Each structure stands twice: as structure tokens, then as C-alpha cells.
Amino acid sequence: MSEIIRRDPRREWIARNRLHPEHASVLAALGVNRGGDGGAVSEWLGPNGVVRKNPRAIGFIGPNGVKRIDRSGLQQGGQSTATTTAARDSRRTVTIDQPAFLVVVVPDLTGGRLSGHDKDLLGLARRVADADAEQPGAVVAILFGEHKGEGGGELKEQALGEAGIDRVVHLDDEFYAGFAPEARLAALSAVEREMTPRFWLLPDSPLGGADLGRRLALRLGERAATGVWQVEADNEAPLGWRCTARGAAGSLDIQRPLPRVALALAECAEPVDETRHAAEHLALAASIPTTLSRIEDLGQVAVDPAGVALAEAEFILSGGNGVKQWDAFHHAAKVLGATEGASRVAVDDGFMARDRQVGATGTWVTARVYMAVGISGAIQHLQGIQRCDKVVAINLDPGCDIIKRADLAVIGDSTQILAALVAMVEQQRGGQRDAA
Amino acid sequence: MQPDLQQKQQQQGIDVAVLVSIGRHPTTGRARRAEQDARGLELALAIEAELPGTRISMLHAGSQDDSSEAALRGYLGMATGVGMGLESMTLLEQPEGSDAIPALAKHLAATSPQLVITGARAERGEGSGLLPYALAEHLGWPLVNSLASVEKVENGVVTLLQALPRGQRRRLKVRLPAIISVDEAAPAARQSAFGPARRATFAITPTTPEADSELAQWHLAPARKRPKRLKIVKAASARDRFKAAASKSEGKGGQVLTDVTPEQGAEAIYQLLKEEDVLR
Ligand SMILES: Cc1cc2nc3c(=O)[nH]c(=O)nc-3n(C[C@H](O)[C@H](O)[C@H](O)COP(=O)(O)OP(=O)(O)OC[C@H]3O[C@@H](n4cnc5c(N)ncnc54)[C@H](O)[C@@H]3O)c2cc1C
């Protein structure tokens, strides 16, 4: 019945007659699409069931004052800003109240943040949890130690949710800090008792996941899959999944059913980028028994930053053509406890050794904090610092490329700023020593 | 009496068991001494040099054939001039495809050394790196992974340096008996000398083998190259895709401080360094 198109010749006539006083309202009644804010209707179903378009009603005025029509259907008369904000908010909010099962992830949380590896792993957890849309599982993250996140408060929690976490168990008591495998294992065993998750996923990384995951597997009596890089659904496997893992020093691919405990490599799955989850905080009901540890952590040992390989240094102070006083630069590196790096110009001019060069033809560095002093940020240099977390730039020129890359840029003379920084650090240290 | 005994023990050194496996040359695939296990033995030799009277025993569980024997002799050749204890190694004989863990656990429980050193991961077979953990769980001993060096052994407590990522080190104190595993952070192993390696003997202990039935069911294949991750651009329109492909990454647009005194600039940098916790 409803498929029959009923014509109303009078309304059609009004729709064709742009000068008719009821034109707009009739179009609205017929129309599918209305461009912009209260503008004319741009598209409606014609009398024969054919879509009619009003080309004057669509499009927008481009940057050069010329009218542009975007046929992709994105920009229908609206301003471009509107669509970008829409794109930013495009994550679906998902809450899972009654999970059918739990997937527990223990991220490394290095430096208080989810690393790329952690996010990949959470992506994998999501895949496993969401496989059956009727009965979704929930992803529980166990966080040890402080969680810094990006920003504070709300934003911080949002970061967890955007990584795909439904529930969070945050344990940041003092005795989990440092090397405390026994305490952490006790906590994870408590989680096992209370939640009986279907899967445990940990990163197979030297930052702690590899160690903790293996301990956990043995404690639970599971034969863990390690070095997992691919997970596929498999109806014949006991838990419904099959995994491919690296074995024998990376020379072997082992295909086996996915066990309850799996240690996965980086890039095992795509990180979550379409949904936002609740990241609701949970507390463990039972108190965790404190274990008497036979391992005592005496803390980190001061290593000579100059002896640390540039590629794996955590904090690099890098100097370029804009450094005028190299003695002061070396002194600053010493006071800050930073490993020294350099741009190619500084190396070519003989101020720094060749093995200190950062960039395309030098070392690709992975520092958490990279401080570029008097470096313009040539593309060859920026390539080398792609994987750095935070970049600080000190430069005279506010327009140069390193400023665009930097998280914090200070415009000014390198010598003076470095001197001020050194004075500040020394003063703070002095103050602490006096207080102690 | 008691302190006296301890004194004596200290002078006598400790019993160290080094677990060695058969390695695999990464390009030719031939049997050789495993890289990490050799580093473990190097560490044991360093302890012996520090603490005279330390007894090192080497332990391997596996089958005995020509190629594996040649690989195992690679370890035996490392102990030139040290003299004691390394002229032979214990071989817990079991056929290919048996689980090494029960045999090793049983032997270690019976001989009860104070320190067991293993490599982090084997170069053949599953290579999951679970063995040291399984032994630790089985024997109930503490385990420290990724060891860089042993600093001192005193009154049944060993002080160790553990290697952390980014070239950092952590000092730990562990009560003996303990298991420690070494990886690439430990000092490199010395060369193996041919003569001592030839002269050394094997003490073969038969075991009751337990077949690793689970491993036999898995599908093993030479490692495939992992697919490279593509930069996925989620854009609804061609224009957005083009923009994403053509534009330089703009960065997130950090904070830029212009017209500040050097002190203010330094203050801001100092705050960031503090926040990131890189100042020590
Ligand atoms: C094939 C090839 C490979 C290359 N590989 C590399 C590589 O691996 N690594 C690398 O680094 N380069 C490499 N380069 C060189 C690269 O292109 C640049 O020339 C180089 O990085 C520039 O170094 P710079 O930033 O130190 O010097 P400049 O470009 O001269 O920049 C100096 C900066 O210091 C600022 N400045 C000046 N005085 C002061 C002051 N008093 N206080 C504060 N700031 C000041 C200036 O504003 C300027 O921004 C390569 C080039 C080629 C052709």
C-alpha cells in the first residue's frame, strides 16, 4: 500500500514555483534534505519518485569567495568547522552493564601512561570481548602504580575509556612500586578469585609485562601463549580462538588454541578508535594478603647518562647550530642528567661526536623527553625523533619546524635559557639537600 | 658455631647450576651454544672468580647425538684455566620432544644448588621463556629476570643488578636459593676453546621422559613476515583522505612561549621535566 506514490498536483506546483508564498513550507513537507541553517531545501522526492535537487541551495562559499559544492555529502551547505567537530565527537559511547564474561588486561603503564603496545593489546581485548554482539564481554584493566594520562580529572578517565576499557581496578599502593612481582602476583591472584576472567592478556614487553605474565600463567597453572601476534576466531578451539605466536627466538610461528593467559606483541591488533567505554572504577572486595618478599628492591642505580646508548636513552638534550657555548651545554646535560644528542650541523662542525647525531642518517631515538636546543627541525632531523613522547624546543625563531613538533617551545636565546634552567635545577637540589 | 659455619660456607663459595640448551644459528639454523645461556655461564664464571670455591655445574636435558654434543661442548670450552668442576656436564637424557621441565625440576630439587642461572628464552622449540618461571614455581624459589650482573654473595643473600629498558639498572637483594635468568643485557660470553671442549666429558643420567603432548598438537611453521601496519585514515570523503595523505603531520600544536624572560622559560621547562619524572 504505502509503496504507491500519491501525487498532490497542487503541492508539486507550489514546489516548482519558487515565488509562491508557501513554497518553503511545501518543500519542507516534501523534502529530505535542507541545507544549512533554515536555508532552502536542496533535495526532495519528485512526483515520479525521482529525487530532485536544487543546486542553488547546496554548497558553501570557499576560502576564495567562490561557491564550492562538495559532492561527498559531507558539507551540504554547512560550515566546515561543524563537520570537524562532528568528526571529533564521532566515537560511539558503549556501556556494558551485564557482561557475559571478562577479559582482563594488565597494561605496562610506563611513565603512568598507556603505551602504544598497551593500546594495541586493549584493541585485541576488545576484539575478543565484542566477538559476539549479543553477549559482549567486558574489558577490565588492572593498573599498577600512578596513572598520569593526558590532562587531568575527566580527560584522564576519558583516555582510559577511549582505549576500550570498561572497568578499571586501580592499585597504587606503595608496595606495588618498583620490582614487586610477588605483591603484584598476589593482587592478580585475588582478581582471578573474584572475577574469574575468561582471558588474561598481557603485553610481552621487557617493561614488565613479559615477566609478570609468565609468573601469572604459572601461578594459574596455564600454559601461556607468548609472543602472540595474531588471533583468529576458531570454532574448534576450546575457548573459541586460535592464535599465532612467535617461538624459537622469532624463527618459528606456532599456531595453537588461545589459552587463558596470552602475552601479545605490539601491533597484535588495531587500537580502539571508534568507541568510548565507561572505564568504571572497581575495587577488590577482599583485601590482598601481604606477602613476605624474598626479593628486596634497593631502587634504581644511577647510571652515567653518557654511557647509555642514544637509541634507548630516556631523556636527551640535543644541541644544534643554535648552541653557542658548548661548555655550558655539556654542563647542562650533566646537571639535568640527560644523554647528549646533536643535529648534523653540530656534528659536522666538530662540536659533537658522530655517534651522537640524531636523525635520518644518525640514530633514531625513542626518548620520553627530547629537548632540542637551537635546532631548526629539518625533516631529516624530525624523522629521527618521530618516536619521542614529549619534545621541548628552545629556539630564537618562532616559525621553524621544530616548534610545530614541540609540546613545549620556548622562544629565546639558548645560552640564557639553559643557564637559567641549570640554575633552577641546582637551586632545587640544593634546597632539597638542605631540607634533608 | 653457627657464624663459624657461615664463615666457612662463605669461603667455600656457593653451588651454582647453569642450565644450558642447544641454540640455533639465526641464519644457517645449525646447532650452536645458545647466546643467552652462554651469557649465563659467563656470569657464573664471574661469580666463581669473585668467590673462590664456587662450584659450577652445568645441566642440560635432551637427547644425545652428534650435533647437540658439538653444541654442548661449546659451553664446556668456556672454562679454560678455571680448572675445577667444568670438565664435565650433566646430561639428563630424554628423547626429542619431551618436556624438559619435570626432569630439570626433579634434578634441581635433588641436588639443591643455591643459585640457578638460565637464559631467558630458548632458541629452539617453543622458546616461550616459561621454563625459568616454571622451575621457580615448582621449587618455590624467588626468580629475578633480565640480570645484568651479580655484585656480591654474602650470608645467603645475593645482591644483583637487574637490567631495565633504556639502559637503566636496578639493585636487588635476593635470598638464596634463587633462580636468575639472563638476556642480552648480561656481559657477552667469552669464546670457547677447542681443547678443553674436546677433553670434557658428559655425565649421562637417564630420566623417565614425559612427552610434551600439547606441543605435538600445535602447528609449527617457519616464521612468516609480519604484515606491516598501514596508516589507516578514517575519512568519509575523498577530500579528507587526500588531505590526510598529502599534508605534513601538523603535530598537536604544543604550547609556545614567546616574549618570556629566560627564567620564565626555564621554569616552564623545569615543570615539564618534573612532570615527566626524568630529573634525578
Ligand atoms: C641526506 C641528508 C641527510 C641528513 N641527515 C641528517 C640527520 O640525520 N640529522 C640531522 O640533524 N640533520 C641531517 N641533515 C641535515 C639537515 O637537513 C639540517 O641541515 C640540519 O638538521 C640542521 O641542523 P640545525 O637545526 O642544528 O641547524 P640550523 O638549521 O642552522 O638551525 C639552527 C637553529 O638554531 C636557532 N638559533 C640560532 N641561534 C640561536 C640561539 N642563540 N638560541 C636559540 N636558538 C638559536 C635558529 O633559529 C635555527 O632554528 C641531513 C641532510 C641531508 C641532505
Automatic annotation (TrEMBL), chain A:
Lineage, broadest ranks: Bacteria, Pseudomonadati, Pseudomonadota, Gammaproteobacteria, Oceanospirillales
A GO BP annotation: fatty acid beta-oxidation using acyl-CoA dehydrogenase
This protein's UniProt keywords: Electron transport, Transport
Cross-referenced InterPro entries: DHS-like_NAD/FAD-binding_dom, ETF_a/b_N, ETF_a/FixB, ETF_asu_C, Rossmann-like_a/b/a_fold
Organism, as annotated: Vreelandella sedimenti
Residue ranges of the region described as Disordered: 69-90
Residue stretches making up the Electron transfer flavoprotein alpha/beta-subunit N-terminal domain: 103-301
GO molecular function terms noted in the UniProt entry: electron transfer activity; flavin adenine dinucleotide binding
Family: Belongs to the ETF alpha-subunit/FixB family.
Name of the protein described by the UniProt record: Electron transfer flavoprotein subunit alpha/FixB family protein
TrEMBL record, chain B:
Domain Electron transfer flavoprotein alpha/beta-subunit N-terminal as annotated: residue spans: 37-192
Highest taxon in the source lineage: Bacteria
Stored InterPro entries: ETF_a/b_N, Rossmann-like_a/b/a_fold
Hydrolase as UniProt keyword: no
Keyword Cell inner membrane recorded: no
Keywords: Electron transport, Transport
Official protein name in the record: Electron transfer flavoprotein subunit beta
Originating species: Vreelandella sedimenti
